[in-house]
TrEMBL record:
<feature type="domain" description="Acyl-CoA dehydrogenase/oxidase C-terminal">
    <location>
        <begin position="232"/>
        <end position="367"/>
    </location>
</feature>
<dbReference type="GO" id="GO:0003995">
    <property type="term" value="F:acyl-CoA dehydrogenase activity"/>
</dbReference>
<dbReference type="GO" id="GO:0050660">
    <property type="term" value="F:flavin adenine dinucleotide binding"/>
</dbReference>
<dbReference type="Pfam" id="PF02771">
    <property type="entry name" value="Acyl-CoA_dh_N"/>
</dbReference>
<protein>
    <submittedName>
        <fullName>Acyl-CoA dehydrogenase</fullName>
    </submittedName>
</protein>
<dbReference type="InterPro" id="IPR036250">
    <property type="entry name" value="AcylCo_DH-like_C"/>
</dbReference>
<dbReference type="InterPro" id="IPR046373">
    <property type="entry name" value="Acyl-CoA_Oxase/DH_mid-dom_sf"/>
</dbReference>
<keyword id="KW-0274">FAD</keyword>
<dbReference type="Pfam" id="PF00441">
    <property type="entry name" value="Acyl-CoA_dh_1"/>
</dbReference>
<dbReference type="InterPro" id="IPR009075">
    <property type="entry name" value="AcylCo_DH/oxidase_C"/>
</dbReference>
<dbReference type="InterPro" id="IPR009100">
    <property type="entry name" value="AcylCoA_DH/oxidase_NM_dom_sf"/>
</dbReference>
<dbReference type="InterPro" id="IPR013786">
    <property type="entry name" value="AcylCoA_DH/ox_N"/>
</dbReference>
<dbReference type="InterPro" id="IPR037069">
    <property type="entry name" value="AcylCoA_DH/ox_N_sf"/>
</dbReference>
<keyword id="KW-0285">Flavoprotein</keyword>
<comment type="similarity">
    <text>Belongs to the acyl-CoA dehydrogenase family.</text>
</comment>
<feature type="domain" description="Acyl-CoA dehydrogenase/oxidase N-terminal">
    <location>
        <begin position="19"/>
        <end position="101"/>
    </location>
</feature>
Length: 393
C-alpha cells in the first residue's frame, strides 16, 4: 500500500494539472463574462476529481487533506473560481465523510458522488444572519418522515450547476438559533428563485447568486450529527485549509508571472540585476510564509483528526482561524508586490504578466467569512485560552 502511494500521488498531480490546463484556458473569459466555468468542471469530472475524498470502501480514493489542498492550489493557479468551486465541493464532502459514515442514506449518497461525480453546493449564509454560520433563522420541519425547508439563501455558489445542496437551518421550529442541522437536498427535491445577481469584483465564475430555496426530501437526508459538531470538527478546518490552498494558488501564479517578468528583463540587460528582483525576493519570502502556515495547519489537523476533543478544543480553533486570517491577508501583499514588479504590464489586461484578475479574486478571501468576524471569535477564545508557543507541533 505504502509503495503505491507515491505512484498515486504522481498520477493525482498529473490529473490535477490536466484539469487546471482546461480551467486556465477559459479563466479570462469566465472572469470577463462572469460565467460558470463549465469546461473546468467537465475536466474535473473527466479526471474523477470530485470523488477523491470519498473513502475507498465507498468507491472513492480516500485522498488526504494535503492532497486535496494541493489540487485546490493547482487548479487555483489556473483559474481561482474553478479552484474555489473544487474547494467548496470538497468542504461539503468532508462533512459527509466525517459525519455521514455508518448512516445508510449518507453512505449511499457518498457512493453516488464518487460513481456519478456529483457536484455539491452549500447554503449556510442567510438573509438577516449574514456570514454567522453558527446561527440560523430558518427551521427544518419534519412530519411523516419528510423534511421541508425554506431559506432566504443570499449566497449559494454555482447553485444552478450543482447536483445537491447542503443547507443549514435550525433543527426544529422552536429551536434556538444555534441549535442547527445540515440537510442534503438533491436536485429535483428543491426549487430556487433567484433573489440576488452575482456581479462582483472577483471570483466572478463561482456564480454565487442569491436564492429563495424551497426543499422537500426524506428526513433521513438530515445529517445525523448536530451542525455545531460538524462545523467544529470538519467544516471550519476544511474551509480554512482548502480555501487557503486556492488562495495560495492565486498568489503562486502571480509570483510566477512576476518572476517571468524579472527573468525577461534580466535577459534584456545581461550583467545587471533588474530592479524588480529585490521585490520578487520579498514576494518569495511571503509566499513561503503562506505555504508554511498551510503545511503547519495540515500537520496539526492530521495529528488531531481522530480525536474529537482535540478537534473541538479552543486552541485548535484559534490555530485554524489564524491560518485563514494569515493566508487571506498575505496573498494581497504578495500580489501587490508582483504588481509593482510587473508595472503597467501587470496592470493591463491581456498581457502574459496581467495581475488584475488575481488581485480582484484575492480580495474575496477576507470576506469569505469576514476576517473581522473570525478575529472577533479568536479574541473571545483568547480570553480563556493560552496562545500556543511550542515549536514541537
Ligand atoms: C466567492 C464567495 C463564494 C461564496 N459562496 C458561498 C456559498 O456557496 N454558500 C454560502 O452560504 N455562502 C457563500 N459565501 C458567503 C460567505 O461565506 C460569507 O458568509 C459572506 O460573504 C458574508 O457576507 P457579509 O460580508 O455580508 O456578512 P457578515 O459576515 O455579516 O459581515 C458584514 C460586515 O459586518 C462586519 N461584522 C459582522 N459581524 C461581525 C463580528 N461579529 N465582528 C466583527 N465584525 C463583524 C464584518 O466586518 C463585515 O464587514 C461566499 C462568499 C464569497 C466571497
Amino acid at each position: 500500500m505504502n509503495e503505491l502511494r507515491p505512484v498515486r500521488a504522481l498520477a493525482l498531480a498529473e490529473r490535477a494539472k490536466r484539469a487546471a490546463a482546461v480551467a486556465g484556458a477559459h479563466a479570462d473569459d469566465v472572469d470577463a463574462s462572469g460565467r460558470f466555468p463549465q469546461e473546468a468542471l467537465d475536466a474535473m469530472r473527466a479526471e474523477l476529481l470530485l470523488g477523491l475524498q470519498i473513502p475507498v470502501a465507498l468507491g472513492g480514493e480516500g485522498a488526504s487533506t494535503a492532497e486535496l489542498a494541493e489540487v485546490c492550489s493547482v487548479i487555483g493557479q489556473a483559474c481561482a473560481a474553478a479552484g474555489m468551486i473544487f474547494a467548496m465541493h470538497q468542504i461539503k464532502v468532508s462533512s459527509l465523510v466525517a459525519h455521514g459514515q455508518g448512516d445508510a442514506w449518507h453512505e449511499g449518497f457518498m457512493r453516488r458522488i464518487a460513481a456519478e461525480q456529483l457536484l455539491l453546493a452549500s447554503a449556510t449564509t442567510e438573509g438577516g444572519i449574514g456570514g454567522n454560520l453558527r446561527n440560523s433563522i430558518c427551521a427544518v420541519e419534519v412530519a411523516d418522515g419528510i423534511c421541508r425547508l425554506e431559506k432566504d439563501a443570499t449566497v449559494i455558489s454555482y447553485a444552478e450547476a450543482a447536483d445537491a445542496i447542503l443547507v443549514t437551518s435550525r433543527a426544529k421550529a422552536d429551536s434556538a438559533p444555534s441549535d442547527q442541522v445540515m440537510t442534503v437536498f438533491l436536485k429535483g427535491q428543491y426549487s430556487l428563485d433567484k433573489t440576488h445577481h452575482w456581479d462582483t469584483l472577483g471570483m466572478r465564475g463561482t456564480r454565487s447568486d442569491g436564492f429563495l430555496f424551497k426543499g422537500e426530501a426524506p428526513a433521513c437526508q438530515i445529517l445525523p450529527k448536530p451542525f455545531a459538531e460538524i462545523a467544529a470538527q470538519s467544516m471550519l478546518v476544511y474551509s480554512h485549509i482548502l480555501w487557503s490552498g486556492v488562495w495560495f494558488g492565486i498568489a503562486a501564479d502571480a509570483f510566477a508571472r512576476a518572476q517571468a517578468f524579472v527573468k525577461a528583463a534580466a535577459r534584456k540587460s545581461p550583467g545587471s540585476v533588474p530592479p524588480g528582483a529585490l521585490r520578487l525576493a520579498e514576494a518569495s519570502n511571503l509566499l513561503q510564509l503562506v505555504k508554511s502556515n498551510i503545511l503547519a495547519a495540515l500537520q496539526q489537523y492530521e495529528a488531531a483528526r481522530e480525536d474529537e476533543t482535540r478537534l473541538s478544543s479552543m486552541s485548535f480553533a484559534v490555530s485554524m482561524n489564524n491560518v485563514k486570517i494569515a493566508s487571506s491577508q498575505t496573498i494581497l501583499d504578495i500580489i501587490n508586490h508582483c504588481l509593482l514588479v510587473c508595472g503597467i504590464m501587470g496592470y493591463k489586461n491581456g498581457t502574459p504578466y496581467s495581475l488584475g484578475r488575481h488581485l480582484r479574486d484575492a480580495h474575496s478571501a477576507q470576506l469569505m467569512i469576514s476576517n473581522d468576524r473570525i478575529l472577533g471569535n479568536t479574541s473571545t477564545l483568547l480570553l480563556m485560552n493560552r496562545q500556543d508557543t511550542s515549536l514541537l507541533g
